[in-house]
Specification:
13-stranded antiparallel beta sheet
């Protein structure tokens, strides 16, 4: 099954909801106007994000080479605001929605940055005098995180009934994650386990790295709203993007080395929200969203100071991936126009 089938699966799941017996559906759904209506809503929200963003590089000349992977945690509380404009034409059974959401992290982030390196046997011998299979060097660092998310979603519900609303969606998602790593605890394995200059086991206090990654995703999918009860509804969205793009900058400040990558790939986005009308103009939503991003491209490294100042690397194959889960609570205030 290809990922392009995900929106189709979403449509099928939404259609299945329409077969739920009448006893479980709403007995008196909110009144619809006779022709058309437009509304605007404002929604403060807060939630917790978990997951990671990582990059992996691998450079080989023949059978000789090195691989490196840096994994950054995305475990943090976030808060922000969302605004939505809705226009519904009930004579034609059509509905348009445009939602804009802005989020920033609050407080710090939990977890550590993980840095792993693998060298081939010939490079092991050059570095420490003997070959060593498997991972050679590993480190963990404390991190500070500055996270920003901007989300723009347009929905056109082409099937609008009392029981279910279904329609296509277009979504643009922008994410920026900025990290500062410090107090690095590095260990070497096997012949790498000695302290410098013979090995790589060392503790480095203070700042050791700055890293920034941005994701830009344009996705297409399906929106499904099921008004299961009079005051209780569910909203499900499923989207896929073959146009995901990532850019990052890694500054190893102690080595005066700055690495930049540009990658392209795909993203899968799935969300579920449960809505409860506290009043006709106030709704509480508890929801969650899963995001999976996979991209590949190349990285270039540049020494901006130190003994190797001016030196640059050839393009190195690079992969930038992210897995995210965001669980949130949102309070919506509705303003009919």
């Amino acid at each position: 099954m290809t990922k392009m089938h995900f929106p189709v699966i979403g449509v099928i799941m939404c259609m299945l909801l329409s077969f739920i017996p009448d006893e479980l559906s709403a007995q008196s759904l909110p009144r619809k106007p006779s022709v058309e209506e437009s509304t605007f809503s404002v929604s403060p929200l807060a939630g917790y994000m978990s997951g990671n963003t990582l990059y992996h590089i691998s450079y080989y000349e023949g059978a000789s080479g090195i691989e490196s992977e840096l994994e950054f945690p995305l475990n943090t509380w976030m808060a922000g605001v969302s605004g939505e404009y809705t226009f519904a034409n009930y004579r034609e059974q059509r509905e348009w929605k445009l939602r804009v959401t802005f989020l920033k992290n609050i407080g710090g982030a939990s977890g550590v940055m993980k840095d792993s390196d693998w060298l081939t046997s010939d490079l092991d011998i050059l570095e420490v005098g003997q070959a060593h299979p498997g991972k050679d060097i590993y480190s963990e660092s404390a991190i500070d995180l500055d996270a920003t998310i901007f989300d723009l979603t347009a929905v056109f519900n082409t099937i609008r009934e009392d029981r279910i609303n279904i329609g296509p969606l277009v979504r643009f998602l922008y994410e920026s994650f900025k990290f500062t790593a410090s107090n690095t605890n590095q260990v070497g394995y096997g012949p790498y386990s000695n302290p410098p200059p013979l090995g790589y086991t060392v503790y480095i206090p203070g700042k050791t790295l700055d890293y920034e990654v941005t994701y830009k995703i344009l996705a297409l999918g399906v929106n499904c709203e099921y008004p299961a009860y009079q005051k209780f509804r569910a909203n499900f969205q499923l989207a896929y993007s073959p146009w995901a793009r990532a850019n990052d900058i890694d500054d190893h400040v102690l080595r005066y080395k700055r690495s930049t990558s540009s990658t392209d790939g795909s993203a899968f986005l799935a969300s579920l929200g449960l809505n409860w009308d506290l009043r006709p103009d106030v709704t509480l939503t508890i929801g969650g969203e899963y995001r999976k991003i996979r991209t590949s491209g190349s990285q270039t490294q540049y020494y901006y100071a130190g003994p190797y100042v001016g030196a640059t690397s050839p393009a190195i194959p690079s992969r930038i991936d992210s897995t995210q889960l965001f669980v949130s609570a949102m309070l919506t205030f509705l303003f009919p126009q």
